[in-house]
Amino acid sequence: MSIREALRKHAPTRLLELSGTLTLSAGLALGRAFSSLDRDLRIAWRQEAPDRPDQVWSLAQPHEETPLEVTSRDDRVDGEALAVLVSLTSDVEPAYGVSKRDLPSFRCVVRVRPQGAEFRRFPIENPGQAIDIVERTIEEIRRARELYRPASIHLFGAIPVGLAVLLGQRLNTLGPVHTYEHVEDDTVGTYCPEVLLRPEDL
């Protein structure tokens, strides 16, 4: 019996508060395992930060509008995949650019980043902002997916773990999602494939 099945059996409808140290891909996979469509398994994430008390983030909280740019743009006409770049704690673009030679061709690129030409780290101040970022990101992915019909989604992020968990909860119905981890080197680093999240694995 999986942990998910055990929780469904012994703690149905209870709100489960989760915390820990996870990679981005692990956070997305954890959220995906507790889909927002599953009313019997509700989770919240205890998000830690060095400069403030812990906060509990969950999809049940009301959103608060955030000053972010959420856009999509054509890439390659012959591309078959959709790239999603979420830059909050650092800028994903440099490492993504270096990694493109080893990535599939992308028909469209969705970008989520702070407003302005020059990147500045965007601190998420409260749960409401986290929810807003997740909902706007998912909305733009769905819009781009409907327009371009990509075979798969590839997600590159520099975000808090709690946001990855919430985002993973909302990835249902979007088809296969490839996640990547940033690998440090002497320059900007690269993105390496980590986990493939498939709907049939739930």
Describe the structure.
It is a single chain. Helix content is 28%, strand content 31%. By secondary structure, the protein is α/β, with parallel strands linked by helices. It has one domain (3-201). The strands form two sheets. Strands 4-6-5-7-8-9 form a six-stranded mixed sheet, sandwiched between helices. Strand 7 (152-158), helix 5 (161-169) and strand 8 (177-183) form a beta-alpha-beta unit. Helix 2 (24-33) runs parallel beside helix 5 and helix 4 packs across helix 5 (161-169). The chain is globular. It starts with a helix and ends in a 5-residue tail after the last strand.
Task: Give me the secondary-structure category.
Answer: alpha/beta
Mean pLDDT: 91
C-alpha end-to-end distance? 13 Å
State the share of residues found in helices, binned by percent. 25-40%
| SSE arrangement, N to C | HEHEEEEHEHEHEE
Percent in strands: 25-35%
Query: How many separate structural domains?
Result: 1
Shape: globular
Radius of gyration: 17 Å
Annotation field: number of helices: 5
- How many extended strands? 9
Low-confidence stretches: none
The spatial strand order of the largest sheet comes to 4-6-5-7-8-9
Biggest β-sheet, characterized?
6 strands, mixed
How are the elements arranged and paired?
Blueprint (H helix, E strand, L loop, with lengths): L2 H8 L4 E4 L5 H10 L8 E8 L2 E6 L10 E7 L6 E7 L5 H7 L6 E9 L12 H22 L3 E7 L2 H9 L7 E7 L6 E8 L5
Parallel strand pairs: 1-2, 5-6, 5-7, 7-8
Antiparallel strand pairs: 2-3, 4-6, 8-9
Compact summary:
The protein has helices at 3-10, 24-33, 93-99, 127-148, 161-169, and strands at residues 15-18, 42-49, 52-57, 68-74, 81-87, 106-114, 152-158, 177-183, 190-197.
